[in-house]
Design brief:
Blueprint (H helix, E strand, L loop, with lengths): L4 H25 L1 H4 L1 H6 L6 H27 L11 H25 L3 H15 L14 H5 L2 H15 L5 H24 L1 H7 L1
Helix pairs in contact: 1-4, 1-5, 1-6, 1-8, 4-5, 5-8, 5-9
Length: about 200
C-alpha cells in the first residue's frame, strides 16, 4: 500500500472488526449445544443463546476500538465529522452477525460436525474480505469477490469514517441491515415454532 502508518491503522481496523465476526460466529455455533442440560430443564427461548454471544463480543469490540483510537493518535491521523456514522456501521454489523449466528447455531444442533467445517469457511471468508488487503487494488476480473461480500462494505465503512473522513456507502449498508433484520425476525419465529425439535435433537 506504500502508506507507512496508514497501513498499520488499516490493518488494525480490519483485524478488530473481523475478530468480532469470527468470535461471534464460532462461539454461537456451540452456544445451544453447550447448554444442553439447562435447556432441557428450563424453558428459555433458544434464540437467546447465540444472540448473547454476539452481544458479549460487542463489548470486546468496543475495547478494540480503543486500540484503533490509539493507533490513530500514534500515526497522527485526524478524526473527521464523518465519525458520527460509526454507530451506524456498528449497528449494521451487529444485525448482520446476529442473523448469521442464529442461523449457524440452529444448524449446529442438527449437524454437529458443522463446527469442524466452520473454521475452514471462516478462514476462506477472512481471505476473501479486505481485512489485510485493499479491495480497490483487485484486478477487474476479481472485483466480484468484494462486490458480493457484505463484510467488505462493513470493513470499508469503518475505514471511511475512521481513516479517510469519507461518508460510508449508506445505501448498501442499509440494505445489509434491513436484510439482516428480516432474517433475525424470521429465524426467531422459526426458533419458536421448532423449539420441540431443538430439544429432541439435544
Amino acid at each position: 500500500m506504500g502508506r507507512g502508518g496508514k497501513l498499520r491503522v488499516y490493518l488494525v481496523i480490519g483485524q478488530v472488526a473481523w475478530r468480532w465476526t469470527n468470535a461471534s460466529i464460532n462461539n454461537s455455533s456451540r452456544s445451544i449445544i453447550q447448554y444442553t442440560s439447562i435447556i432441557q430443564q428450563v424453558n428459555l427461548p433458544k434464540a437467546i443463546f447465540p444472540m448473547t454471544r454476539v452481544i458479549s463480543q460487542l463489548i470486546n469490540f468496543v475495547f478494540g476500538l480503543v486500540v484503533v483510537g490509539s493507533f490513530l493518535l500514534l500515526f497522527s491521523i485526524p478524526l473527521h465529522w464523518e465519525i458520527v456514522y460509526l454507530p451506524f456501521v456498528i449497528i449494521v454489523q451487529l444485525f448482520f452477525l446476529l442473523a448469521i449466528s442464529l442461523l449457524v447455531a440452529y444448524i449446529s444442533v442438527f449437524i454437529r460436525d458443522i463446527g469442524n467445517i466452520l473454521g475452514h469457511i471462516l478462514r476462506i471468508w477472512f481471505y476473501a474480505s479486505p481485512v489485510i488487503w485493499e479491495g480497490s487494488r483487485l484486478p477487474d476480473q476479481y472485483y466480484w469477490i468484494e462486490a458480493f461480500n457484505p463484510m467488505s462494505y462493513i470493513l470499508n465503512g469503518y475505514r471511511d469514517v475512521l481513516m479517510y473522513g469519507n461518508t460510508p456507502n449508506i445505501k448498501i449498508l442499509m440494505i445489509i441491515g434491513i436484510v439482516s433484520m428480516c432474517m433475525i425476525s424470521g429465524l426467531i419465529y422459526y426458533y419458536n415454532r421448532n423449539e420441540h425439535k431443538i430439544i429432541k435433537a439435544l
